[in-house]
Automatic annotation (TrEMBL):
PANTHER family: SUGAR FERMENTATION STIMULATION PROTEIN A. GO terms for molecular function: DNA binding. This is Sugar fermentation stimulation protein homolog. CDD domains: SfsA-like_bacterial. Residues 12-79 form the SfsA N-terminal OB domain. Residues 114-236 form the Sugar fermentation stimulation protein C-terminal domain. Belongs to the SfsA family. It comes from the Bacteria.
Length: 249
């Protein structure tokens, strides 16, 4: 995914979870923060941030000309746009068409499948999943319907990515919905899109929200596939890249 207009600034303050004050070339601008998470370890006064500029704001009625979409943590650029993971995951799935889809725990000789018929924001039961698709056997003989929920990850500690950075009852509901879909005969995936590089593994944040970690382990035991991928990040782009190890304990 690509941003049209980006600029660099210096983070000053975050009066509330929706807006931030950023210095851009000596001028303080008000930005919409595209992430309602706490992000306390990222948004520290003085850090360099990336903004998306909207030159059409005055015409379209936007309240701000800028969105805060990225931040440097040391030398690592982290995309913190909470809308970016869904878009990047959809692009990643589209690029996987005709290629072997990653199957956690697959063994040599297992049936190779590829995604097709990809749709976004699909309702099933009382859940609304980010992505729905079919997994077509590459021998052309059969296909299985599947759902995927996408979670963006910006929290990192000593090379370990963690989710969530704040309690999320909605996240638990999604996991229960995926587990129910498996019981109904669907394939189901939760994809943790780690919005940075340099990650050695992913694990649930059992300290901040132990109930989410327990729900993730239960979903995995019930047949929900847990995937975690890092991303290639530039000030203008974000793309899902490589799988990272998942540690559920």
């Amino acid at each position: 995914m690509t941003y049209k207009h980006t600029v660099t600034g210096t983070f000053l303050s975050r009066p509330n979870r929706f807006i931030a004050h950023v210095d851009v070339n000596g001028r303080t601008v008000i930005c919409h923060v595209k992430n309602t998470g706490r992000c306390r370890e990222l948004l520290i006064p003085g850090v360099t941030v990336i903004l998306e500029y909207h030159p059409e704001a005055g015409v379209t009625g936007r309240k701000t000309e800028y969105d805060l979409i990225g931040v440097y943590k040391g030398n690592v650029l982290i995309n913190m746009d909470s809308q970016a993971p869904n878009r990047a995951a959809w692009e990643w799935l589209e690029a996987m068409k005709g290629r072997a889809f990653p199957e956690p725990g697959a063994n040599p000789g297992d049936t190779v499948r590829t995604p097709d018929n990809i749709r976004r924001e699909v309702t099933h039961g009382d859940s609304r999943f980010d992505l729905a698709f079919t997994l077509d056997h590459m021998d052309g003989k059969s296909q299985v319907p599947a759902f995927m929920e996408v979670k963006g990850v910006t929290l990192e500690d000593h090379g370990m990515a963690m989710f969530p950075d704040a309690p999320t009852l909605r996240g638990i509901k999604h996991l229960h919905g995926l587990a129910q879909a498996v019981r109904e005969g669907y394939d189901a995936y939760v994809l943790f899109v780690i919005q940075m590089k340099g990650i050695k593994g992913f694990k649930p944040n059992n300290i901040t929200h132990p109930a989410f970690g327990e729900a993730l382990r239960e979903a995995s035991s019930g047949g929900v596939h847990v995937l975690a991928y890092d991303c290639i990040i530039t000030p203008d782009t974000m793309a899902v890249d490589q799988p990272v190890p998942v540690f559920l304990d």
